[in-house]
Design goal:
about 200 residues; mainly alpha; two-stranded antiparallel ribbon; 2 strands
Length: about 200
């Protein structure tokens, strides 16, 4: 009698495994960011190396670059993940005004530090730091605009919707005084506030 084949993992098992993997990645990313930001605030960004950040986060330099492309990116703690096929299909299947769905889609692909207070202090001293995120945000703007145009059938509407959401995102990140616990809800609220001002 031959050995039994191992049972295939169920969908729920795979989902749980994927969820655990994502949580571990988020924890590692947060640990790297905390180490980078702490060192930068203590000594100044120019006096900090990737090796020191990696040692502070108890990871290898190779692992560091799996999470952030540079020490500036690690200090900012902002990452922009590309849209996947499943995300695109889900968004395109939506109906009506796309702004609310855009808020959720953006927040699910842009990771920001949970507590922004220390980061804001550093950026106030070194505003050029945010330039590091510029190319990533430009790429996701282009992607979101093309995707929204497919859903609405109108390029102008797509451009306005994406511009509104990205502007609201910038306002949310820069003006919130404490930690952002539910960024999607905060972003939607900021979008509504901007809309009310335009009336």
């Amino acid at each position: 009698m031959g050995a039994r084949e191992p049972a295939a993992a169920s969908t729920s098992d795979r989902r749980e495994e994927g969820g655990l993997r994502e949580r571990k990645k988020r924890r590692t990313r947060a640990t790297i960011h905390a180490a980078a930001l702490g060192l930068a605030l203590e000594r100044g960004l120019d006096q900090v190396t990737v090796e020191e950040i990696s040692a502070g986060a108890d990871i290898s330099v190779r692992t560091f670059f799996n999470y952030f492309p540079s020490k500036t990116a690690a200090v900012l703690g902002v990452t922009v993940d590309p849209l996947g096929d499943e995300d695109r299909d889900h968004f395109l299947a939506g109906a009506g005004n796309p702004v609310g769905d855009l808020c959720g889609l953006l927040v699910s692909h842009v990771t920001v530090p949970a507590d922004l207070g220390a980061l804001r202090r550093l950026v106030a001293e070194r505003p050029e730091l945010v330039d590091d995120v510029g190319p990533q945000m430009s790429a996701i703007r282009k992607d979101l605009t093309a995707l929204t145009a497919r859903r609405t059938g109108d390029e102008r509407t797509a451009e306005l919707a994406v511009s509104l959401v990205l502007t609201a995102f910038g306002v949310t990140i820069h003006s919130e005084s404490g930690a952002v616990d539910d960024l999607a809800a905060t972003l939607r609220r900021t979008v509504r506030e901007i809309g009310e001002l335009a009336r």
